[in-house]
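Structure tokens please, single chain.
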Amino acid sequence: MSTYCLLDHPSPDSSMSSPSVEELRARIVHLDSEIDLQKKLLQKLEKDMIFARRQLNAALDPVARLPLEISSEIFLQSLAAGFTGKQGVPTALLNVCSAWTDIALATPALWTTVHIDFPCGDGLAEALPIWFGRAWNRPLSITISLRGRCVSWNHRVSDVLWRHGEQVKHLEIFDDDDFCVRDENDKRIDLFGATTPVSLPLLETLTIRSQHQHRSYRAPQILELVRRAPNIVESTFNMATVNAFNDGDPKMVTVPTLRRVTFEDCGHDDILRYLALPALETLSIPLCTIIDDDLLAFLERSGASLRDLSLGSKFRDMDSFDEDSFVPYDSDVVAELFAALGDSSFLPTLHGLTIHLGEALPGGPSL
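Here you go.
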């Protein structure tokens, strides 16, 4: 490699004649080439320095000297500290040193919990398959939160999730009430877009919540999720679903494995009409639903040996309670309830019955 030196070139005060234009151009080209060479050499030295520091960190790091089983468990315990910004604990561990990178990539359990916050950029759609791949086909726990408008739901990202549905074991979807927008044109959350899950064979628990009374999920999509989950065991719904089915009445969905179902509010009647759950053991449902025949028809259609039934729900949000607007259920409703239960065929198998009479009243009575 050639080296440029000032002594090789005369100074302006030299008695020698001035260089020609061609010589100056050649000199500039030579200097430019030398600068490129020095930059490349500097980059190589910087990389060598980083590598040497990582080697030193690995040599001094007690975690790197531990057996993989122990160091992996330490990394897993770090998840309890929560997520740090957008990258999260697993990604942060990759950036410490090469030894920690090797440990993190050799610990698939680190990558089995995924939090997706909408709105987000399309870049997450490219990052998710990499994250899922690091889980080594382990079952995934997915939490999706939506903030702001319904259009903030990124279908490029959710499409990736539905395409990897065969890995999902626990799925929770909710929208954050603190960030909801009251807009008549922004009321329905579209979970699928152009992509519907092919199958959810590992899904055991499904939780869908809407904290905002002016926004809802699409009932046909909720039914579709349940239908494509042949091993689902538990579901929790807190939402006001869309009562109208756009494409007419759907087919009845029979789920032979679903044992525990919780409806935390009214507005789910459209789902009950099209569900049959023969393995249902525990059901929690708002007291207002017993006023019509949907609940009893659902129970008779399911033919389940129901063991625990909870009607009504205790008030949860003390800050938003409005005592002036509360209207408690009267004795006539309670009498109709017990009459309906007495006439139903599922009562002999019932082991536990809880009725919250004042489901919107703090500390309301229960039976």
